[in-house]
Amino acid sequence: MVTLDDIRAAAVRIRGVALRTPLLDVGPLSLKCENLQPMGAFKVRGACNMIAQLPPESRAAGVITYSSGNHGQAVALVAQRFGIPAVVVMPETTPPIKVEGVRRYGGEVLFEGTTTLQRKRRAEQELAARGMTMVPPFDDPWVIAGQGTVGLEILEQCPGVTTVYVPAGGGGLISGVSAAIKGMRGGVRIVGVEPEGAAKMSRSRAAGHPVTLERVSSIADGLLAVRPGDLTFEHVQTLVDEVMTVSDDQIRSAVRWLFRNASLVAEPSGAAAVAGALAQGPARSGTTVAIVSGGNVDPAAYAGYIT
């Protein structure tokens, strides 16, 4: 399990690459705006925390990852900052804006299949052939600790927080956030939110072990992992109070709500936690925070969501 000390050390390590993003009060919610990170999502935190700890010889050989989009962009951006090569294996269905983002930061893109497991296998093959270092998208203690810095900032920016809604894909963000917040304020309620069409964390919690879904489907392309990680599942089982699902219609409504009420651009995955918070309503006391985890969305698709 990732510790509070691990997360505090990560907060120091990622300074100068990841931003301390604002927390905005908007009506019934406070919004942690990770969509305002340099590459548009929280993923830069975990990628930076891991790559910064690699020895010089590993950096020289470069890094590789597999990603539906935002983690790949994060790895490419951090690798560019460190002056090292980066390869990203992405699904064939990746939105063009996320592919372009990886290339803009100097990353090499390879396409493989449509599921997490397919692109992971391809990345492992390339890893063996090229001698690079894998930067996992979520199931790694260094990555989880980096993502956990979001939780530290929430507590600093909103001391009265009572509930935090966190999107749940593979589980890296919710693992880190829950480790940070529960480590400092055990009474704060942590709620994970995932799409109905990709409810791998809900199914896994019910089963008592990680479950692999046969298929996933949602407009929230960043939350379509077919299986939680072993380490992330352990964190969620131990630290998270509730995991709920939201429909694609609720996610669309949340994207539109963020545009109209906060002037924030969020991709569907980035708006999932807001969808969960809106569905459950404001807390009776204290403050509810929802993490807006990313804002990398195709302009044409986005226009459809907000009209």
Structure description:
The protein is an alpha/beta fold. The chain folds into 2 domains: 4-40 and 140-306, Rossmann fold; 45-134, Rossmann fold (3-Layer(aba) Sandwich), CATH 3.40.50. The protein has helices spanning 4-13, 43-51, 56-61, 70-82, 96-104, 116-130, 141-157, 172-184, 200-207, 230-239, 248-262, 268-280, 299-306, and strands at residues 23-26, 29-33, 63-66, 86-90, 108-111, 133-134, 161-167, 189-195, 242-246, 287-292. The strands form 2 sheets. Strands 1-2-10-7-8-9 form a 6-stranded mixed beta sheet. A 4-stranded parallel beta sheet has the order 5-4-3-6, sandwiched between helices. Helix 7 (141-157) packs across helix 8 (172-184). The longest helix is centred in the middle third of the chain and has 17 residues, at 141-157. It is globular, with a radius of gyration of 18 Å. The mean pLDDT is 96.
List keywords for this structure.
307 residues; alpha/beta; Rossmann fold; 2 domains; six-stranded mixed β-sheet; four-stranded parallel β-sheet; 48% helix
Gist of the model:
It contains 13 helices and 10 strands. The protein has helices at 4-13, 43-51, 56-61, 70-82, 96-104, 116-130, 141-157, 172-184, 200-207, 230-239, 248-262, 268-280, 299-306; strands spanning 23-26, 29-33, 63-66, 86-90, 108-111, 133-134, 161-167, 189-195, 242-246, 287-292.
